[in-house]
């Protein structure tokens, strides 16, 4: 099976690169329905590194909430946003990434259009608060992945359509959370990139605030297209 790898495979420390490899393995579904990781020794042999290097990578994965260690059972993947692991298809190759972003664009554009039409004052306040939290995280040098997911959840909630919310929670968010987590380890965000992403999110908020459904859908479509481009800038396919 083809593997999804970072373009800059030589960047970052060894533990950072092992961290990214494990997250990519989660995306591909390498660890099965139970999400149990191989042992430290097995991972060390797989990646050709020492066990202390693997141990450091696993420690960071635990601190970031990607895995958890169960006494007597080893390390297991923690399903993000409460979604069951079996609810999302694995990302096996670059074609799957293309398909995923096409799907995500349709779902999230629809949710944004509905949010612009049906949002109330409380929804708008929650959306702006999540945007502020995301901006603060990014400006402080954090990946802001959790805050970004919450921002998109706020859009889905503002649609007052449970089908949008459930689809984003159980299908869209888990994949993008792991994908962006893997990319963020070795891709250090520049101030210019932070400003660009903030502007994309601001356009979405402004359109929803104006109750401009078409503009909201288009702002999300542009944001998702740019998000795909940023992911592809950091990935390549190795046979």
The proportion of residues in beta strands is: 5-15%
What's the story with the biggest beta sheet? 2 strands, antiparallel
**Stretches where pLDDT falls below 50 for ≥5 residues?**
1-9, 81-86
Terminal Cα span: 7 Å
Mean pLDDT: 82
SSE succession: EHHHEEHHHHHHE
CATH class category label of the largest domain:
Mainly Alpha
CATH architecture of the largest domain: Up-down Bundle
Keywords: DNA-binding, Transcription, Transcription regulation
Organism: Azohydromonas lata
Pfam families: FCD (PF07729), GntR (PF00392)
Protein name: FadR/GntR family transcriptional regulator
Characterization of the model:
The protein has 239 residues and is mostly helical. The chain has two domains: 3-82, Arc Repressor Mutant, subunit A (Orthogonal Bundle), CATH 1.10.10.10; 92-238, Four Helix Bundle (Hemerythrin (Met), subunit A) (Up-down Bundle), CATH 1.20.120.530. It has helices spanning 14-28, 40-47, 51-63, 94-118, 121-139, 145-158, 162-186, 191-209, 213-233, and strands at 3-6, 67-70, 74-77, 235-238. It has a two-stranded antiparallel sheet with strand order 1-4. Strands 2-3 form a two-stranded antiparallel ribbon. A hairpin with a 3-residue loop joins strand 2 (67-70) and strand 3.
Outline:
With 239 residues, the protein is mostly helical. 67% of the residues lie in helices and 7% in strands.
Question: What labels would you give this structure?
Answer:
239 residues, Arc Repressor Mutant, subunit A, 2 domains, two-stranded antiparallel ribbon
């Amino acid at each position: 099976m083809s593997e999804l790898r970072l373009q800059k495979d030589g960047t970052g420390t060894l533990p950072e690169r092992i961290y990214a490899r494990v997250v990519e393995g989660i995306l591909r579904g390498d660890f099965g329905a139970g999400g149990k990781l191989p042992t430290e020794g097995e991972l060390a042999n797989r990646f050709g590194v020492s066990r202390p290097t693997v141990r450091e990578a696993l420690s960071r994965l635990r601190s970031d909430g990607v895995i958890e260690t169960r006494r007597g059972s080893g390390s297991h993947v923690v399903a993000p946003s409460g979604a069951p692991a079996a609810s999302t298809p694995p990302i096996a190759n670059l074609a799957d990434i293309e398909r995923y972003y096409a799907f995500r664009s349709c779902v999230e554009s629809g949710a944004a259009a509905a949010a612009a039409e049906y949002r109330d004052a409380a929804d708008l306040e929650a959306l702006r608060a999540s945007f502020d939290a995301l901006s603060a995280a990014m400006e402080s040098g954090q990946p802001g992945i959790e805050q970004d997911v919450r921002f998109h959840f706020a859009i889905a909630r503002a649609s007052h359509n449970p089908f949008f919310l459930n689809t984003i929670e159980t299908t869209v968010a888990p994949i993008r959370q792991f994908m962006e987590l893997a990319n963020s380890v070795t891709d250090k965000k520049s101030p210019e990139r932070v400003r660009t992403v903030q502007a994309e999110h601001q356009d979405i908020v402004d359109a929803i605030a104006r109750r401009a459904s078409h503009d909201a859908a288009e702002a999300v479509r542009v944001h998702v297209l740019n998000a795909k481009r940023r992911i592809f800038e950091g990935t390549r396919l190795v046979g």
